[in-house]
Amino acid sequence: MPAARHFSPVEFLRAKRDGREHAPGDVQAFVAAFLAEEVTDYQASAWLMAAFLNGLSPGETLALTNAMLHSGRVLTLPSVKGARVDKHSTGGVGDKISICLAPLVAACGVHVPMISGRGLGHTGGTLDKLEAIPGFRVDLNAKRFETIVREVGTCLIGQTAELAPADRRLYALRDVTATVECIPLIVASILSKKLAEGIDGLVLDVKCGGGAFMKDLKSARALARELVLVGKGAGKRVSALITDMSAPIGGTIGNALETREAIEVLKNGGPADTRELTLELGAEMLVVGKRCKTRRQALVLLERALEDGSALAVFRKLVELQGGDPRVVDDPKRLPTAKVRHVLRASRGGYVSSIDARALGLLAIELGAGRTRADQRIDAAAGFELVAHIVHEPR
Ligand code: URA
Q: What are the start and end residues of each CATH 3.40.1030.10 domain in the chain?
């Protein structure tokens, strides 16, 4: 039997400080030692900064992803037969897409096991939006998650403590050491959590623009490429779309308002941009899930599921099985509504040429729609309805 390999945290740090590439086994040993508290937080922080400054190769990023993925439980969903594909958005303002996309794709025959997040910074979170539905529960255990995915085709829950715990601990250090904005670390963080869901494929919605993490096309492309490369390296079918986040998606920002808008899309309506993004991501998911050979075929299936009410029926069942009041689906007035409303009128006529998504996201937090501390309660009814939309000048 080979002797257990000796791991020296200081040598590991020195290697990255000097810009050398780690062997995959050393990355794995580092994550294991960090979790076992044999590597201290200050050593891990020093390594994160060295990785931020000197970068990680795709091989190192894959090793980090795998080490973080296997630091906790990896779901396999054995009773769910057929393709399982999820979508992950890198975060935007007014991004309610998961709420209409997951039931729509499930209605077309691809399972969507989705573990989502809460609001982060100026961006909202799918879990908070779903919890605007009275009774809706996102804290289901793995067994119930699997049952609902099997029975309905989709289930949306929150991250549990058992999934990718190394990511949670490393993310907490990144947050306080200015090392969040680092593509390899973002890739490993996102993929380690998503791959723990028991999926075969993943479609990434990489947001680009003022309201997103990635402000310009160059950095959005770099993130998308790396996510796809490392995801494929982990043996999954992965594809990415880069989508606009210079303005909020759709006409609402705020939890109940966005859930209502997602329901409108499922009723074959909703704002044109929200519907289009849902269909584009859905088409990619049906192709990644091998349900359709081409995006064109996929779009036909998706549009039919919106028209014939099957996507809405999946959502209704999902709400019911996750403990929510399914009557909100047919009567969205049952969602919380703000008691105080204020109409902001432009002081003069004209047209809207841009909307600052990030500023509105931050204002929504101040209204109570998001949090500045993890333990804060949010107000499901708070938010904005955008009445005027951007008018693009003819080129
Ligand atoms: N979202 C994540 O889950 N991790 C990151 O590092 C950044 C965004």
A: 85-332
pLDDT tens digits, the chain, 395 residues: what are they?
A: 444 568 999 999 999 999 999 999 999 999 999 999 999 999 999 999 999 999 999 999 999 999 999 999 999 999 999 999 999 999 889 999 999 999 999 999 999 999 998 877 778 889 999 999 999 999 999 999 999 999 999 999 998 888 999 999 999 999 899 998 899 999 999 999 999 999 999 999 999 999 898 999 999 999 999 999 999 999 999 999 999 999 999 999 999 999 999 999 999 999 999 999 999 999 999 999 999 999 999 999 999 999 999 999 999 999 999 999 999 999 999 999 999 999 999 899 999 999 999 999 999 999 999 887 777 889 999 999 999 888 876 65
CATH 3.40.50.880 fits 85-332, yes or no: no
Ligand 1 centroid – CA 232 distance (Å): 19
Q: Residue 154 phi/psi, 5° resolution?
A: -155, 160
User: Which residue is closest in CA terms to ligand 1's atom 1?
Assistant: 190
Residues with active-site annotation: 88, 167, 174, 189, 193
Handedness of CA 102, 105, 106, 110 (dihedral sign): negative
Domain at 9-55, CATH homologous superfamily: Transferase, Pyrimidine Nucleoside Phosphorylase; Chain C (1.20.970.10)
Q: For ligand 1, atom 3, name the residue with the nearest CA.
A: 190
Ligand 1 within 6 A of CB of 189: yes
Residue with CA nearest ligand 1 atom 8? 186
Is the pTM here over 0.85, yes or no?
yes
Helix (H) or strand (E) holding 252: strand 252-253
Taking the CA atoms of the chain, what radius of gyration do you get in angstroms?
21
Residue 86 to residue 69: CA distance in whole angstroms: 16
Instruction: Check pocket membership of 187 for ligand 1, CB cut-off 6 A.
Output: no
Cα–ligand 1 centroid distance for 186 (angstroms): 5
CA 20 to ligand 1 center in whole angstroms: 25
Which atom of ligand 1 sits closest to the CA of residue 193? 3
Burial grade of 270 (CB within 10 A; 0-12, 13-18, 19 or more): buried
Read off the amino acid at residue 66: N
